[in-house]
Specification:
Length: 563
């Protein structure tokens, strides 16, 4: 990207201070939001109603919360709440759950009058109401099953909002090529699937990623002119994330603290903590976390199964020692990780093996590269990210198993997975092979094309499973009359998803491989052996220097990006 007349890169003039000081590059933000939302919307319609984990319970919960019923009446089947009949009927269309050979064409006839209020159970009755208060809004407007699709779309809009904010924050970083490319690995088919359903897991994951990317940008690529905008993203992501699920405060705490270890000494940390934007950030995040804690403690939602096993759902392993829970989850890390890449439906429809292998290869390459190449503080932070990803699930299960049994699912670790992939890539962002243009472009093409192909295969296989069953005929699926089809038919959504993937791949390759990034223009010192010693010094100076004393710097990004 450069001057179209000269054919080379140019430095934007200083006559546009507003553009230079903008904290979020609007083109990158809205472009990422539009592409991710479109991809997630395809999953919204390609997935039958009630076909994601516990979705009927979440649908009922959202419709009840938005009507002011925050808890409901406890019962053996969950909390009883009052919702429209079509919402309650979402429980009746799960004939395919846990049986991949059964199509989504359940033998159920919706009521002729779907709007009257009825009682319905929800096993999510004690969950934090923030997510449900937003996602449940369409149920106030729609008087039939279309309201469920509208709830899904709103959930996808919220999920992709934070993913796009994370992407835009990374776009402002000095060494951004590799972490931008890492979004092709971080945005797994499972994330798109969960984001296209009524389930707080995807919002929790992307909001936590926005927190983590904001903190990485503050420490890895400090810029006083952008500090306020980055702090706002961190605040918004943290407040939403901690109020998503019971374990969310743990993930957010790690996302906030681990990047701070990149600061080289205490003076740099103190200088950062004294900034007005950071003080406000701490206050707002603390208030949001206290609110989440009050809800969790007040409802006893997180410890209910531990303290009252008789009131909990029955899971295997109840009464076992914490060591058993830790061992099973830790040893089974690879198996549980299937739920991070692709384990669709009610955890009964795995992505094709090749999809899982490709993602495993990409994740392994990033992790091994980080351990081999990084040094000093960057290596320490990399190891902490890996350790958190591996140990936190096992520790949570160890604390829970005696009273609640084996409850862990791979998708619960999505927040740390996203932080791990993007974080390791950001730490590797200024390595030599990234700067070798031809080699880097080949790597980027391989990653993006491989990820796009795997995304399509996972989407097609899941849609086929619901249309004709896992053992159904491909001929019937594509050219016959499948037992179930999404609105508009199978071919429509296969074509739409393919076109969207091509557009997403082209845009990601453009920003991560073909466009010149700022350090290629002015940061020649980054290629020297003294990088590890020089970069922290510049970071400390940027953090300690008051914003008012910062000399204006020219915009180093191409015109039109909104930086």
């Amino acid at each position: 990207m450069g001057n179209p007349q000269a054919g080379g890169d140019t430095v934007a003039p200083t006559a546009h201070p507003a553009r230079r000081r903008r904290s979020i590059p609007l083109t990158a933000f809205f472009g990422a939001w539009a592409v991710l939302f479109a991809l997630m919307t395809a999953w919204v319609f390609a997935t039958p109603p009630s076909a994601s984990p516990d979705e009927p319970a979440h649908i009922v919960r959202a419709a009840s919360v938005v009507r002011g019923e925050l808890v409901g009446t406890p019962s053996q089947s969950g909390h009883i709440v009052t919702v429209p009949r079509y919402i309650a009927e979402s429980h009746a269309v799960t004939c395919f759950a846990f049986n991949p050979a059964v199509t989504a064409n359940c033998a159920f006839t919706p009521s002729a009058d779907p709007w009257p209020s009825v009682e319905a159970p929800t096993t999510a009755g004690l969950y934090n109401p923030l997510y449900y208060a937003v996602v449940g809004l369409p149920s106030l407007v729609f008087h039939d099953a279309g309201g469920i699709y509208a709830m899904r779309i709103l959930s996808a809009l919220l999920t992709t909002l934070f993913a796009a904010l994370a992407f835009a924050i990374v776009f402002t970083m000095r060494n951004r090529r590799m972490p931008l490319l890492a979004f092709a690995v971080a945005v797994t088919p499972m994330l798109l699937f969960l984001g296209g359903s009524v389930n707080p897991s995807a919002v929790e994951a992307t909001a936590t990623l926005a927190v983590f990317c904001g903190m990485l940008a503050i420490t890895l690529s400090p810029d006083p002119a952008r500090l306020t905008g980055r702090a706002v993203v961190v605040m918004a992501g943290a407040v939403v994330a901690v109020n998503s699920r019971g374990l969310s405060p743990l993930w957010v705490a790690l996302a906030l603290v681990i990047p701070l270890l990149l600061l080289t000494d205490r003076d740099a940390l103190v200088a950062l903590l004294r900034r007005r934007a950071v003080i406000v950030l701490i206050a707002v995040v603390a208030a949001g976390t206290i609110a989440a804690g009050l809800w969790t403690v007040g409802t006893n939602s997180l410890a209910n199964a531990i303290e009252h096993p008789d009131q909990a759902l029955s899971f295997p392993g109840i009464g076992s020692s914490p060591l058993v829970g830790f061992q099973k989850v830790f040893i089974g890390t690879i198996g549980y990780s299937q739920g991070l890449v692709g384990l669709f439906g009610w955890l009964d429809t795995p992505a094709p093996d090749v999809v899982l292998y490709l993602w495993g290869l990409a994740i392994g390459a990033i992790a091994v590269g980080a351990v081999v190449v990084l040094r000093r503080r960057r290596l320490l932070v990399a190891w902490l990210l890996v350790a958190a990803f591996l140990l936190c699930p096992a520790l949570v299960q160890a604390a829970y198993i005696h009273g609640g049994g084996m409850i862990w699912q791979g998708r619960y670790n999505l927040p740390l997975f996203l932080c791990l992939v993007v974080g390791l890539a950001a730490l590797l962002g200024d390595t030599a092979f990234v700067r070798a243009s031809y080699a880097w472009r080949r790597i980027a093409v391989i990653v993006v094309v491989g990820a796009a192909g795997a995304q399509f295969w996972a989407f097609e296989a899941t849609l086929r499973r619901y249309a004709v069953g896992s053992n159904g005929s491909m001929r019937t699926y594509l050219f016959g009359q499948p037992a179930w089809a999404p609105p508009g038919g199978v071919w429509l959504w296969l074509a739409v998803f393919a076109v969207l993937l091509v557009a997403a791949a082209a845009l990601l390759l453009h920003v991560s491989a073909w466009s010149r990034q700022p350090e290629e223009v002015v940061d020649a010192v980054a290629a020297s052996p003294a990088l590890e010693e020089e970069q922290p010094r510049r970071q400390d100076e940027a953090l300690q220097q008051p914003e008012a004393q910062q000399e204006p710097q020219p915009s180093l990004t191409p015109a039109g990006t909104g930086l």
